[in-house]
Amino acid sequence: MRIIFAILSFLFAFCGQQIGFAQEDRKPNTLLVKNMQDGTVFLKWVCEKVYYEEGFNVYRKTDIGAWEKLNKDPLLWNDTEIARISGIYPDVAMFNGIFQKITVKEFQENVASVFALQKAFQFNEFALAMAIGYVDKTASSGTSYSYKVVAIENGLETEMDQKQLTVGIYTPVQPPQNIVVERKKRKINFDFKPEPMRYFGIKVFRTGSDFSTDTLTGTDVYAVQQDIDENGKLVPWPKHLFIDRTINKEVEYTYEFFAVDYFAETSPSSGEIKSETIDFDPPQEAFGLDFTIDTQKVNLTWVTVVDPDRAGINVYRYNAEGKDSIKLNSEPLSRDALAITNQVEEFATYFYKVGVFDATGNEILSAPTMVQVRDIIPPLPPTGVKTTTDTGKVNLTWRPNKEPDLKGYVIFKVIDDGSNNEEEYTLVNPKPITATNYTETMSKNVKNTFHYVVTAVDTSWNYSKKSEYSVAELPDHVSPVKPFIKMVKQDDKSVVVEWIPNKDEDLKGYHMYRKTVGDSTQQPEKLNGRLLKLDKSTYDDKLFDPGTNYSYYMQAVDSSGNTSEFSNEFQIKTAGKSKKQAVNLSSFSVKKKRKGKMVSLKWVALPEENIEGYMLYRKLSSDKRFMPHTGQLSNSVFTDKKFEKGKTYEYQLRVYTKAGDVIRSEVKEIEIPADK
Q1: Cβ contacts of 441-448, under 8 Å, gap ≥ 24
Q2: Domain range spanning residue 418?
Q3: Do residues 139 and 19 both lie within one domain?
Q4: I need a surface site. Which of 50, 238, 338, 585 has the fewest CB within 10 A?
Q5: What is the value of pTM for the model shown?
Q6: pLDDT (tens digit, 9 = 90+) per residue, 498-523?
Q7: Of 333, 350, 372, which residue constitutes the final position of a domain?
């Protein structure tokens, strides 16, 4: 039933108004009413079920009257009448006795019901016989009536539709308007204003200059209606409303169009519409296309045969076969032309065709010829090549080339050996780069001097000449190996440090450092003013203090000023009694004051004359390292007000002696209460 409903929708879409009245909304059951030429009123209706087995009733009333049933008995399918009509219209013979073959329900769901509706539009007698039509012969001229049709089902009436009509106003159907003819070689296209609300279809008659006559639409009416898609929605009108595909190109034709409305009435003729013969046959085509190339010039030649129909020649070029057509000649070439030269703008693959045309404009194109115009012109060499260096790196920059087909740049280098033979250059980057800078990374211990050149490459892989070279001398940023102290010993006048000499080729000398053991604040002290020479592997420290623990360190230095890591640490305690007097830290207290608004710190360290100063260190209990909290203090008391409430802090006091020692207190922890 979905297929039937879709086809019915096609008919219902255009039967939704009374001829001559305003268009109404599309609906599944539609009544059509028309004044006929004989003074009667003809009614036709289209229902979704097409036919109801218990029949239909037709009613009529005036504006002030009551509904009056016009038919005495229900309108039913009339096999006797259909048998009679089929003798006149053979197309309806298939419906004779149809309900002896199938049920009404099967008919409603069968495509035969749609075919029956189409025949009911063409033949009024058939519409009456299949009970979807009625003729009102008693209507009074000049009176306005409302008509309605009802279907009977299970003994009950169901209204299908209503329409109003003023009796006596007969409007004959007019032929199709604004018919446009377009003649082609094998067909003739017709276009006109489609008016599906005014007429159902058309009939077309044709006569030819060869004395032929034809009814192109045959015995049927050619429906001029919009089609519907699978969802039952209207699709756009076809490109041409009617096409005659049975023409002889050498024959002139005359056509007449007639409109046929939904009540089988035929309009007068549209008048004669002529279609004269047109020359659609082109002359003989050109062949043997050949070419030569001179950089960006393509010289094209071809061959033609003797043909009096040939009027001229055009030459076309395509970037790809069948696309982006360009006509090379602004004016047609002579009918006898056999060559043309084309200057192409780009190096690319082109396709050429030669068109031969006649006086009527018919043109025939030759087979295409492919021409590959290759780029053989290299780019200019890059300029402004510069290099900078860093440890194991050479950075290159240069000015950009301006060629539109530039693909990129490749870089070459050679070690500076004094000769710089061009054949010895090696490729740095196998794949061209588009940037105008490049960094080559090497091993950090490379110290050679290189010459770098840059070459430009275009999209056709033409290489420019090499640029002017730029010299790159890699700096030495590699530190020497850290030294190893073999032994530290004391004699009568000095502490002697002995080490194993380094093997670095560019070694310049050593630095010697000393530090007092246990003094975390003291940085290693460099003992030598000048670098220690390479011909020695010992150092005499004569400025030491007796009774002191020392650590000795060394650093190696190369000719570029690079310093090694510190050597291994070697400790020694010098003999004798220390000249430094001891300092004793006897107490260190940390207390909260004023309900946690300040922290009071006090300490006692003696003797005071041997003390340089004090410094407090502090950290949160969650931190790992103490940080200086004050500068150098001279008093032995301090009040701390800078802290966060609700945190726990740890304090440490450091006492700095005039002898250079540092004394650390024990760590004191204190919790600062949070605000209530």
Answers
A1: 441/392, 441/393, 442/392, 442/393, 442/394, 442/474, 443/392, 444/391, 444/392, 444/477, 444/478, 445/392, 445/478, 446/392, 446/474, 447/474, 447/475, 447/476, 448/415, 448/416, 448/474
A2: 386-473
A3: yes
A4: 238
A5: 0.48
A6: 999 998 888 899 999 999 887 765 67
A7: 372
